[in-house]
Design a protein that fits this description.
Largest sheet: 6 strands, mixed
Helix content: 40-55%
Radius of gyration: 27 Å
Strand content: 15-25%
Mean pLDDT: 90
Structural class: alpha/beta
Low-confidence stretches: 1-7, 21-25, 39-48
Distance between the termini: 62 Å
Number of helices: 11
Shape: globular
Length: about 350
């Protein structure tokens, strides 16, 4: 279109009365061509200034994390003045949950959302916020995050990634049709394990762990592959667990976090203003996400109740039994995590 406009201008100019081509200097038609070329180059430079990223997430559009990501992407677009465009691929449509971290590390996706506890087998740092009854409420969970954050940033940086922000899930409870009054009542359950942490809990309570990611959860329940799992009311709502399970034991065992991570080379390739825009949008998403998690937790439980699910407060015996398991897992974790692990726990307890 630009070239066509320039040529049209040239033709109109040449059609003027008295038009002659001067011998000295470049002919006017060449000047027009040069002008058109300059315009094209200018437009090309503008197009090159725009960067496009892919952001995979494992969760459906109805999930509050994805709602937060959608707002974050709009904020990035606005704050960067359109220089950085991010495309969201939710519900594991681009990569499955366990694949996202490697995709970001390898720059197949420039930015991605991961569940930290999914990678507990890689390093103890990713397991911390999945330890039962270490941090059971939002305030405690945020304090744990502050203690964990410097170590998490260091670990991700060592693998070519940058932590942009992290948001906690609502507290974790137990979905099961069985009456569970003590830990021994969980023996033999076909237990969904979505991370090494949840698999370990299954082992310790005598349940049968079955690896199922959230995008496959409804199908696993419908086909009887699993009959129980431990997660938040958010997951129960998103997957319509109420169609298969009618009891939710509100143990508030822990609040795992989703982290949004960025490939470091991709980040470094951005100009300083766009980097600042991305960081600012991330900080806003983190603050908004923690509030949204807390606000929607109650709403999720209300929605479960509307659909026939009973929320049950755990018995003292069940709490005590799960706390014993939590203490054992923390002791095991400290042995693996070493000095850094102890430093994180000490920093958490000092807050």
């Amino acid at each position: 279109r630009v070239i066509a406009a320039a040529l049209s201008f040239r033709n109109a100019y040449r059609a003027q009365p008295g038009f002659t081509i001067r011998k000295e200097g470049p002919p006017m038609h060449k000047k027009i061509s040069l002008l058109a070329g300059s315009i094209v180059l200018a437009f090309s430079a503008g197009a090159q200034a725009q960067t496009k990223w892919d952001l995979p997430s494992a969760y459906p559009a109805s999930n509050f994390h994805v709602e937060n990501l959608t707002t974050f992407i709009k904020d990035v677009d606005t704050l960067s003045e359109g220089k950085l465009k991010i495309t969201l691929h939710n519900n594991a449509s681009l990569y499955k949950a366990p694949e996202i971290k490697r995709a970001v590390q390898g720059n197949q996706a420039q930015i991605g959302e991961i569940l930290l506890t999914n990678f507990a087998n890689e390093d103890p740092i990713y397991e911390l916020d999945g330890l039962p009854f270490l941090a059971t409420g939002y305030d405690a969970s945020f304090k744990l995050y502050q203690a964990q954050k410097p170590f998490l940033e260091k670990k991700l940086n060592s693998h070519g990634m940058t932590l942009l922000y992290a948001v906690a899930w609502p507290p974790q409870g137990i979905f099961a049709n069985r009456d569970i009054k003590q830990v021994s009542d969980m023996k033999g359950l076909k237990w969904r394990a979505y991370s090494p942490v949840t698999a370990k809990i299954a082992e310790l309570v005598g349940a049968q762990p079955v690896t199922v990611q959230q995008a496959e959860l409804a199908q696993a329940l419908a086909t009887g592959v699993i009959d129980s799992y431990m997660s938040s009311a958010s997951t129960g709502y998103d997957t319509k667990t109420y169609e298969y399970i009618k009891k939710f034991y509100d143990t508030q065992a822990w609040l795992p976090k989703n982290a949004v991570i960025v490939n470091k080379k991709a980040f470094d390739a951005l100009d300083p203003a766009t980097q600042a825009a991305l960081k600012k949008a991330g900080a806003q998403a983190e603050e908004r996400g923690w509030k949204l998690s807390q606000e929607k937790n109650k709403w999720y439980q209300e929605e479960l109740a509307k659909n026939g699910m009973e929320t049950i407060q755990p018995t003292v015996e069940l709490k005590e039994g799960l706390s014993v398991i939590g203490k054992r897992m923390l002791d095991d974790w400290l042995k693996k995590a070493g000095a850094d692990g102890q430093a994180m726990i000490d920093a958490y307890k000092k807050q």
